[in-house]
């Protein structure tokens, strides 16, 4: 048995990769955004790959920044990592909506995961998931991509408003930062469609499920990872009390 369990390892590696990214931002500044993004993606990826090789040498890894080794399809334990989610926001001075994602898919389930939000000084993890926040009965706050809000959200908003609900759309970068905002109660719902990959959602979905939130595809079916094609284009994460309402609005 390894001395550090998978939950603790996920949280530690996400937080440590986050430190690498914070240092890089401080050292390089924001003048050359493209170079900062590339440096961030690769420094965090290298850090996580070395750490997983050291601490979980027998496990497979799927990383946004790595070559997709299909040997993962034969492995019972696959770490799914996004070394820098919200790369665009990472390169913009003052923004804190970017994240490091570390998840473990074991057999047929998300067994552990952590989302570090380095610029917010927070790491959420399955080892210590946040408690479901109380919801006020006011507006339904739906967090969406800053740059690619899906059309389906506008249709959902129209349906909810027609049913008498007040809806606020909150633009934010990074799937991890958006799902964290649902879990901390800053917003109520995250809906995305039209394109995403397994690494964008595995770690935040792991934490969301451990926290008792709703996390699924937008048709309500379960999120499944370690597929041959890691394209996983849509996701719904919501406060558990709103899941049925939102799913019926989406379908
Ligand atoms: N239509 C799309 N196709 C592919 N990836 C998408 C996408 N929309 C969002 N994503 C990815 O999902 C993450 C969150 O996006 P957003 O901030 O727009 O909500 C980003 O990850 P990366 O920053 O790791 O590339 C982004 O690239
Ligand atoms: Mg990403």
TrEMBL record:
Keyword terms, alphabetized: Magnesium, Metal-binding
Domain of life assignment: Bacteria
Name of the protein in its database record: inositol-phosphate phosphatase
Organism: Actinocorallia aurantiaca
EC code: 3.1.3.25
InterPro entries listed in its UniProt record: CysQ/Inositol_MonoPase, Inositol_monoP_metal-BS, Inositol_monophosphatase-like, Inositol_monophosphatase_CS
One Pfam assignment: Inositol_P
Catalytic activity: adenosine 3',5'-bisphosphate + H2O = AMP + phosphate; a myo-inositol phosphate + H2O = myo-inositol + phosphate
Keyword Magnesium: yes
